[in-house]
Amino acid sequence: xxxxxxxxxxxxxxxxxxxxxxxxxxxxxxxxxxxxxxxxxxxxxxxxxxxxxxxxxxxxxxxxxxxxxxxxxxxxxxxxxxxxxxxxxxxxxxxxxxxxxxxxxxxxxxxxxxxx
Amino acid sequence: xxxxxxxxxxxxxxxxxxxxxxxxxxxxxxxxxxxxxxxxxxxxxxxxxxxxxxxxxxxxxxxxxxxxxxxxxxxxxxxxxxxxxxxxxxxxxxxxxxxxxxxxxxxxxxxx
Lengths: 116, 112
Hints:
The complex is a heterodimer of chains A (116) and B (112). Chain A is mainly β and 116 residues long. Chain A is built from no helices and eleven strands. The radius of gyration of chain A is 13 Å and the shape is globular. Chain B is an all-beta fold and 112 residues long. Chains A and B meet through strand 5, strand 9 and strand 10 of A and strand 4 and strand 5 of B.
């Protein structure tokens, strides 16, 4: 149990375009979903927290107009990187909680975004 | 806010030997301590977690210990195998806080 999927697993896009990443909890209802960004050989950096039906809470320094988060249902959250630039290239990982307890997070496999 | 320190940043262990990774935290309100294993190009996988009402938890070759007084917790892997090679992250969270704070990670190499 507690499986989280992400789609796509990798994406390459041109500078200026927008990219949408999906995160799904496959076998449980996720009360909260989280989006992280990870640079090579570094720890996970929390970008935002979202609850189903509510606006996402962004961490300090994360542009909410650039990284649009939608949490439309208890099993789906999306992250849209708008007007992507090469500096947005990174590994984006989502996680979901709500299976065992409100604090246990289960992570997706990640999405590698490369902006040319 | 909470701050989690993790040591060492890199650890090389002979196959079959034990590996120990240590973390300290700063917020006495933290009461949930998960450990994640991340393989190259993949998302973190929860391998074990402990709550502040217990001092030790074991799952086969993996064990975690917690010292609330000293605010430190450790991951112990016994009889290490090549597939244990990965980056391990410790983390801490306070009750009622949905965010967890991660350490910087330990890159574990299992030597043949």
